[in-house]
Structure formats: structure tokens, C-alpha cells
Design brief:
By secondary structure, the protein is α+β, with helices and mostly antiparallel strands. It has helices at about 25-30, 80-90, 105-110, 145-150, 185-190, 190-195, 230-250, 255-265, 275-280, 300-315, 355-370, 385, 395-405, 415-420, and strands at about 5, 10, 15-20, 35-40, 55, 65-70, 70-75, 90-95, 125-135, 140, 160-165, 170, 175-180, 200-205, 210-220, 270-275, 290-295, 325-330, 345-350, 375. The chain is globular.
């Protein structure tokens, strides 16, 4: 049986697809000596999951295993969507969250998934413990800080993660405002916007001079929740229905995309949403695409985004999806794209069925010249040779990898390419 990712761009036919229910089962699988990879929910756009060996699914390890104070022990296969309400029942929440909640916890950690908010780090930064099955089939509990700095973001190259201990924060609510603003105005006031709001991001449609600015403030958990009908209207009709129709038209008539984008931005009216945080952060994504995302020093990112938009317009590239710009605090995970620096992320997308290479080939060099590091779950052209100089702790990660997977059980073609053999 074949496997494919969410966008449909990555497919493989593993020798077997397995759904182990325990660490002991996983250990026995690893000891078979065949190549092993783990599939989360398929929301990575790269080929890192692909294998002709054994492909594991951790959906049977999807429980909240316990709560001790502000630390929750979480099964690796639980999705962020399922985890939010379970933590809320204990009066807890994740410190921050991205806009996709279909990911498994282990998959989100392994690729460095992040949200936005200049004072908040990516999800993996709150890992304080981890259990995994290593390359020899041993069940290992990681508590040493050096091991955790390697394992928090590992692209699945150290072992099969079975459980993580996540430090949480008290449950809180969020109040979000989306509003249309001129790109020039947002760029000119961006530092002030980022400093005065808990979470800031903006979506810039190519071929227009307008962005959708999203500002979110953290509030008490008892905030009045946006009526469900209105949330559904915004998500299903506006964010997915209208955008999906526009993308389908643009795919058939690429030359009309600039006109379509300008019409979309004239129709965009913004909106407000409030409720418990894990529901407000998450967005419904039914319009499928392929994505590239780079993490740059915070001070460099906005200028790179502006220049990329300018070049896309100049060359009239058929890009219907908005650029997305977000902000994250630095952290110390060895392979974190935000390692050691406050970070601006720039994500660019191309609708499924349209060639993303012209857009990605234009944007990627701009990001690299600004010191960018690729998101591990998004498309890029980098190799171990070009990545190693961008990560000060690259060799430290390699030492942990040599110890936990000396025989490279968890290494497929993509891992060899990006991390080396």
C-alpha cells in the first residue's frame, strides 16, 4: 500500500506500514534491521518520510499519559487538535501554537513547527523530557540537556519518539483581529506592531500592495467565544471556499492571477475571533498547496519578503497564494531554524497542480543571502554540505546521532541528503 503526504506531492510504497501499540512493539520492529521511518499526519512537504522499508504510524500512542504540575506527558501520536482540549481539562495550554493543528506532536516537534509571537519560541523549546526507541531497539529516556537539545528537533533521525514531556502554561484565551492594510504601512510600523501585540503575522498577496494583518492578544480563558456559525462562515466560505475557487481559476488561466489577487484583496474585509487559545490559533486548511519556508534573522526577514514580492510582480509569476510572515523568539535546539537568534519566518506557497519551482527558485536565494535556514518540514534544495555552516551546533547533533543510531536505521535518501550519511 502506498503512502502520500497532505499535498499529494510526496508518495512512496513502503515494504510494510505498521501501527504499533507499545514501545515494546516498536523495539521489536527496529530490531528487524530494516530501514524505519515514521509518518505523522503527512503535513510535511518534503520527502523525509519516504522509504521502501518500514513506515510506522503512531496513532495508537495518542494519549495524554499524565500531568504533574505544569508538565504533561504526551503520547507521540496525539494530534495538536486532540491535545488542546485534553490540556484544557487540566487548566493548561501550550505556550504557543501554529495555525495547523492536524499534526502529531512528534511530527511537529521533529520539524521545528512554530507559531508567531516575538516573545515565544517554537513548540519544541518546551520539551523537558523524551522517550524513544533508538537504532539498536533500546527504549531510552532522554533527560540530559545536551541529548534533548539534539532530540527536540531531529527530523526523525535519532529514533522513534514514543512520549514527550511538555512544559505547559496556565490555560488562556486569545482575541484575534484580521484587517486589511497597505503593505508599505505595515512594513514601516512592523517593529511597533510586533512589540505591542502578543502575536503578529501578515499575509501578503503577490501582485497587490495590500496585506491581511493578523494581531492576536492573550486574554483570560473566560473570554466570550466567537459564535460557531461565524467561525465556520469565515473558515469554510471565505478562507477556503473563495480562495479555493480563485486558485482553480488561476490554475486554468495563470495570466489572470494578478487580476484575481487584486479582486480578492478588494473583497477581503477582515474579521475578529475570540475563544480559548488553541481554537483561535488553528485554521482550517482545505485548499491544498506546496510550501517553502525560511527562518532568517528577525531584522532581515521583512526586507526579504518585500523584495521577493517585488520580483514576483516584476516577472509576473503566477502566484495566487499569499506570502506569510511570522516572528519567533530564538532557542537553543541544535537544529532549530531559530537557533541562537530571534527569527522572522517567510513562507511562500504554490497551489497544488501548479509548478512551485519558479517561485521557490526566486525566493530561496534571497533567503539564503540573508542567513536563512529552511524549515525542516518545507521544501528546499539544501544539502548537509550547505546546511552545516548555518548551524553552530551541527557537530554536536551529529555526535548524539552517532550514539543513538550508529547503524543509520532511521536514515532514508532524504535524511542522507540533508544530514549526511
Amino acid at each position: 500500500m502506498s503512502w502520500s503526504n497532505w499535498s499529494g506531492a510526496q508518495t512512496c510504497r513502503p515494504r510494510e506500514q505498521l501501527h504499533p501499540a507499545s514501545e515494546a512493539e516498536i523495539a521489536a520492529i527496529v530490531r528487524r534491521g530494516l530501514p524505519v521511518r515514521v509518518a505523522g499526519s503527512g503535513h510535511s512537504f518534503t520527502d523525509v518520510v519516504l522509504t521502501d522499508g518500514l513506515l510506522l504510524h503512531l496513532d495508537r500512542l495518542a494519549s495524554l499519559n499524565g500531568v504533574d504540575g505544569d508538565v504533561a506527558r504526551v503520547g507521540a501520536g496525539v494530534t495538536l487538535r486532540a491535545l488542546g482540549p485534553r490540556l484544557a481539562a487540566h487548566g493548561l495550554a501550550l505556550e504557543n501554537q501554529g495555525d495547523i493543528d492536524a499534526q502529531t506532536v512528534a511530527g511537529a516537534l521533529a520539524t521545528g513547527t512554530h507559531g508567531t509571537g516575538a516573545r515565544f519560541r517554537n513548540l519544541s523549546a518546551n520539551v523537558v523530557g523524551m522517550r524513544l526507541v533508538d537504532g539498536r531497539g533500546n527504549i531510552v529516556e532522554l533527560t540530559d540537556p545536551e541529548d534533548l537539545r539534539a532530540a527536540r528537533i531531529s527530523v526523525g533521525a535519532l529514533g522513534v519518539v514514543t512520549e514527550v514531556a511538555l512544559r505547559c502554561v496556565p490555560l488562556f484565551g486569545a482575541s484575534r483581529v484580521d484587517e486589511r492594510r497597505p503593505l508599505r504601512e505595515v512594513l514601516a510600523t512592523l517593529d511597533e506592531l510586533v512589540a505591542s501585540n502578543d502575536h503578529v503575522e501578515f499575509f501578503a498577496f503577490p501582485h497587490t500592495d495590500t496585506v491581511m494583518l493578523r494581531r492576536t492578544q492573550r486574554v483570560g480563558p473566560g473570554v466570550a467565544t466567537t459564535p460557531r456559525w461565524r467561525a465556520i462562515l469565515e473558515a469554510d466560505v471565505l478562507e477556503n471556499g473563495v480562495l479555493g475557487a480563485a486558485c482553480r481559476v488561476g490554475r486554468r488561466a495563470p495570466g489572470q492571477i494578478p487580476r484575481i489577487n487584486r479582486a480578492l484583496m478588494r473583497l477581503a474585509t477582515g474579521g475578529e475571533r475570540a475563544g480559548v487559545a488553541h481554537r483561535v490559533y488553528a485554521s482550517v486548511r482545505r485548499v491544498r498547496f506546496n510550501e517553502m519556508e525560511y527562518a532568517m534573522p528577525r531584522e532581515a526577514g521583512p526586507a526579504v519578503a518585500a523584495e521577493a514580492l517585488r520580483r514576483v510582480a516584476e516577472r509576473r509569476l503566477p502566484v495566487g497564494f499569499p506570502f506569510e510572515v511570522r516572528f519567533v523568539a530564538g532557542d537553543d535546539a541544535h537544529l532549530s531554524p531559530a537557533h541562537g537568534r530571534d527569527t522572522c519566518y517567510l513562507a511562500v506557497h504554490q497551489y497544488r497542480g501548479m509548478d512551485p519551482r519558479p517561485l521557490f527558485d526566486l525566493v530561496e536565494p534571497l533567503c539564503l543571502d540573508a542567513g536563512g535556514r529552511p524549515h525542516w518540514g518545507k521544501l528546499h534544495t539544501q544539502t548537509a554540505e550547505t546546511l552545516a555552516p548555518r548551524y553552530p551546533q551541527w557537530d554536536a547533533f551529529a555526535r548524539v546521532r552517532d550514539r543513538l543510531d550508529p547503524d543509520r536505521v532511521f536514515t532514508g535518501p532524504a535524511i542522507r541528503r540533508i544530514l549526511g550519511p
